[in-house]
Amino acid sequence: MKSNLPVKMMALFNVLSNNSYYVNIIFFNFVFLFGLVALFKVLFSIYPNKKWVITCSLFLLPSTLFWCSGIHKDGLILSAIGVCIYCFYKLLKETFALKYLVFILLSFLLIFSLRNYILFALLPFIFCWIIAEKHPTHKKKIFAGIYVSGLACFFIIPLIFPSINPPLYLALKQQEFLQLTAGSQITTDPLQPTIQGFISFLPRALDMAFLRPHPTEFANLSYIPAIIETILLAVLILVSVISLSKTFKVPPIVIGLFAFSVSVLLICGYTIPFTGAIVRYRSVVLPLLITPLLCITNFSFSKKKD
Predict the structure, then answer these.
(1) Which residues share a beta bridge with 185?
(2) What pLDDT is recorded for position 300?
(3) pTM assigned to the model
(4) How many CB atoms lie within 10 A of CB 56?
(5) Interval 215-238: pLDDT, tens
(6) Which of 80, 14, 52 is nearest to 291 (CA)?
(7) Which of 67, 137, 207, 269 to pair with 96, CA 20 to 30 A apart?
(8) Residue 292 and residue 278: Cα distance in Å, rounded?
(9) Could you write out the DSSP letters of every residue in 31-86?
């Protein structure tokens, strides 16, 4: 299912395009744009004065443009995430409608069938978001409490149910990647499926998820957009942290998008030892991380009420 879905979509589009690859690209991008447009509507309703910031950061990121606009499953995943977030936003802000629930279930099914770990990272975000919307004054505590509890369960569950072992699953995933070979492979030690193993591997996971490719890894011209993108991401995160106390109130969905994106990136950082692959996998959640950060960051550093 993971690899066959784009092929099946291609077979369907071939009937309409007379086997034209370029026409099929248009059909695929039409589907991919649904999720990005849905995300735009959600974020624009929250930050109406940030129209062009939202537009550029959602639609014009180099890695997202490249990986999520071709005949790959990355665009389908991003679109499904966008539709899911939009439907939950509508359910939380408006009256219940069955169509939103149907689209949410279809999005869950699509994400799970293509990259199941993204769904596992999405569920805590949605759970926290729903509770935080009902108790907005405690939103930070809600997110912190649920995510810390989830992290504890991640390591405790194997002690109670040995057949369910999430740390071992990630370690085996890394082993599968290590058995592959590519020019962008990074030499790394095997991940140990223990608390100590994950803690000791954390600096490498953060480096892989947020800082690769390094400027010193320049191999060809295709590395330039990824390197620039990585540098700007690091600067943006730093500026956001510095100006955080001076920003307006941050809505629960923005906290959730940040937590979800970081969760997915850390999973990738723990399991993927290839620079090229990390750029591709990161492209799916990068708009969900950069766009909210740009919306809440006070680049003028003028004082604002929290």
Answers:
(1) 274
(2) 66
(3) 0.90
(4) 13
(5) 887 777 778 888 888 888 888 888
(6) 52
(7) 137
(8) 21
(9) HHHHHHHHHHHHHHHH-GGGHHHHHHHHH--HHHHHHTSSSSHHHHHHHHHHHHHH
Packing angle of the helix pair 21-46, 51-59 (nearest 10 deg): 150
Helix boundaries (H) for 207-248: 223-243
What's the CA gap between 170 and 82, in Å, rounded? Answer: 26
- Closest alpha carbon to 109 in 135, 76, 74, 142: 76
Give the pLDDT confidence score for residue 13 in this predicted structure.
86
pLDDT tens digit string along 170-196? 999 999 999 988 878 888 889 999 999
Q: Is the pLDDT of residue 246 over 60?
A: no
What are 171's two structure tokens?
A: 């370690």
Give the other-Cβ count within 10 Å of 2's Cβ.
Answer: 10
Up-side HSE of residue 233: CA atoms within 13 Å toward CB?
Answer: 31
Q: Which tens digit of pLDDT belongs to each residue from 99-115?
A: 999 999 999 999 999 99
* Cα three-residue angle 91-97-98, rounded to 5 degrees: 120
* Tokens 């990005």, residue located: 36
Q: In angstroms, rounded to a whole number, what is the distance separating the alpha carbons of residues 233 and 91?
A: 32
3-state secondary structure of 185: strand
Q: How many CA atoms lie within 13 A of 208 on its CB side?
A: 28
Write down the pLDDT at residue 91: 92
- Angle, vertex CA 228, rays to CA 225 and CA 232, nearest 5: 135
- Cα gap 162→304, rounded to integer Å: 50
- Tokens, residue 123: 């569920």
Residue 276, both tokens: 């090229």
Q: How far apart, in whole angstroms, are the C-alpha atoms of residue 103 and residue 25?
A: 24
The answer to whether 190 touches 200, Cβ cutoff 8 Å, is no
Encoding tokens for residue 235? 């600067």
